[in-house]
Each structure stands twice: as structure tokens, then as C-alpha cells.
Write a structure and sequence with these properties.
300 residues; alpha+beta; Aminopeptidase; 11 strands; 23% helix; globular
Length: 300
């Protein structure tokens, strides 16, 4: 946690969580004593950016509800928005459909690369650049278990290629299950079965809330989520901040006008033997003094 104090009193605080996948920093909490004073929160966020860069992190991430005042502080501290997201909450019951009978199965370790290829196919390039996901983002998927923070995955496969993926994760919070989906456009008809299969596992964790986060570029899945019992809770904006490490620059200065004496050398061209026998410096050639290289005459 990063804090800003004045006269021994905490004026602002920001809590960042470092994820285990690639040690990226995620902003989880911002608290400010005086909303009208921007200096404290700005100092906290900029301190976090410096610390993240010093620790080797290349990106910091933050998500804020649309229109929140802290959004301006994020922008001043180097954060830029790269995506809008819809947050939906599961409020009703849905019909449970056996996943295996509709082409949906639990993810296998060998599916990691296929899921990443689906991500590259579905997600816009500018979002891919901001998120900088690698195939490691889809590894270590295993069934959910109460009391542990883990992620579970379900897939739709067609002719050996992954065309749909749903992940239910409790890694961010032990009390909330988060649902994320990736589906190729031509397989939209199987999206509902994929979602229902994933929700069946989430609901087995009785008493746990379930949220779905749908990117703005995939709004077509919202209506399907509403059909299975989700309610739209509002919009949030995803931000990213790119860190920069101070680097020590090594500069080599070359003085082309320094006049050093050169030892006499035998002429390489016949007839110019007197040119290098009178102690002439290389600088004299540039100044126009010294003997003429052809006649041997010297300017007085």
C-alpha cells in the first residue's frame, strides 16, 4: 500500500495487488480524505508507478466506474484508458444443461495454446497491446474449490481448434467468482451452453457472488447473459500505465579538430617525398599552412 501523509495524518492511500502470472500491478483500492485535494492522490499514484518500474513491472492496471473523480487523477499520473467494460451480476437461476452433451468440455492443459490463439483472433489489437497477454494467462486452470483462489475453464472445440472459452475465477477475491468469455463470432450459438456450463460450477460454491465482465467490443454477449439470470450493473473503464526505467547513458565524445603530431612516414606516391619530412602536423593541412604537397613551397 502507498500512502500520503500530512502532519502525521494519512491523506490518501492506494492499494496495488501484484499478480502471480507476470507480476503486473493491479490497483484494487483508492481512498482519499479530501476529495477536493488532488495533490495527495496524485503523489500516491506517481509513487506507485515509480516503485513498479523499479521492481521491473512494465505495466500497471486500474479499473474505475465511469465518471468517478479518481479517473482524472489516474490520467494525470500517466494512466490511459484502453477499454470500456460492462459489469453484470448474477441475480437469477438458470437452466442447467450438461456441458459434455452440447459440445462443451472442461479445459485441458494441452488447450493453453489454443485458448491463446482464440484470444488473438477475437480481441482487438489495441487491447492486446495494452494487456500484453501471453499463453501463461490461460495455464493452471483447475476445478474451483472452496477456501482456495483458483480459476476454472471450459471450452468449445471444433475440428481440433478452440472456438469458445469461459473462465470462472476466484483469484481476485475469495467471495466473488468472476466470469470471462471468449467466443468466435461464427460459434455464437454455443455461447449460452458454454456460459451455463461455467455457471454450474460457480453456483456449486454456495453463497458466492458471481460477476461477469464483458468488454465493450463484445456487447453481443450481454443479452445472452441476461437470459441466464444476469443483471447489468453499469460500466467501468480499464486503464493502463506504462512504466519507464531510468537508464544511464554512456556518451563517447570525439574531437575531430584536435591537432596531433604524426611521425614522419615515407611517401606512398613517388615525387612527394618532401611532403612528410618537414614536421608538418595534420592540422596544418586544414589550416592551409606548411609546404605545398606538390611543389614543396612554404607560405611566408
Amino acid at each position: 500500500m502507498r500512502v500520503a501523509r500530512a502532519d502525521g495524518v494519512v491523506d490518501a492511500a492506494a492499494l496495488f495487488r501484484v499478480t502471480g502470472v507476470d507480476e503486473r500491478w493491479q490497483l484494487d483500492l483508492v481512498a482519499v480524505r479530501d476529495e477536493a485535494d488532488d495533490r495527495a492522490i496524485d503523489a500516491v499514484l506517481r509513487c506507485a508507478v515509480r516503485d513498479a518500474g523499479a521492481a521491473g513491472a512494465r505495466r500497471l492496471f486500474a479499473r474505475m466506474p465511469a465518471g468517478v473523480q479518481h479517473e482524472r487523477s489516474l490520467r494525470r499520473s500517466g494512466f490511459v484508458p484502453y477499454m470500456a467494460e460492462h459489469v453484470l451480476r448474477l441475480t437469477g437461476k438458470h437452466e442447467v444443461v450438461p456441458g459434455e452433451s452440447v459440445g462443451v468440455r472442461r479445459v485441458h492443459p494441452a488447450d493453453e495454446w489454443g485458448v491463446h490463439q482464440l484470444y488473438l483472433e477475437v480481441v482487438p489489437r489495441q487491447v492486446q497491446y495494452a494487456e500484453a497477454m501471453t499463453s501463461r494467462a490461460w495455464d493452471d486452470l483447475q476445478p474451483l474449490r472452496r477456501g482456495t483462489r483458483r480459476a476454472s475453464g471450459w471450452v468449445v472445440e471444433d475440428h481440433g481448434r478452440i472456438k469458445g472459452f469461459a473462465r470462472v475465477s476466484t483469484r481476485e477475491s475469495g467471495q466473488v467468482a468472476r466470469l470471462d468469455i471468449l467466443v468466435a463470432p461464427e460459434f455464437r450459438g454455443l455461447a449460452r451452453n458454454l456460459i451455463v456450463a461455467a455457471l454450474g460450477e460457480a453456483e456449486s460454491m454456495s453463497g458466492m457472488r458471481c460477476l461477469a465482465v464483458i468488454p465493450g467490443y463484445a456487447q453481443e454477449w450481454i443479452s445472452i447473459l441476461e437470459e441466464v439470470g444476469f443483471t447489468d450493473e453499469g460500466l467501468q473503464t480499464a486503464f493502463v500505465c506504462y512504466t519507464a526505467l531510468p537508464a544511464r547513458a554512456h556518451v563517447v565524445a570525439v574531437d575531430l579538430w584536435r591537432h596531433d603530431e604524426t611521425p614522419p612516414e615515407p611517401a606512398s606516391v613517388p615525387g612527394l617525398g618532401a611532403a612528410n619530412t618537414s614536421g608538418v602536423t595534420r592540422g596544418d593541412w586544414f589550416r592551409g599552412s606548411g609546404p605545398d604537397p606538390v611543389t614543396g613551397a612554404v607560405d611566408e
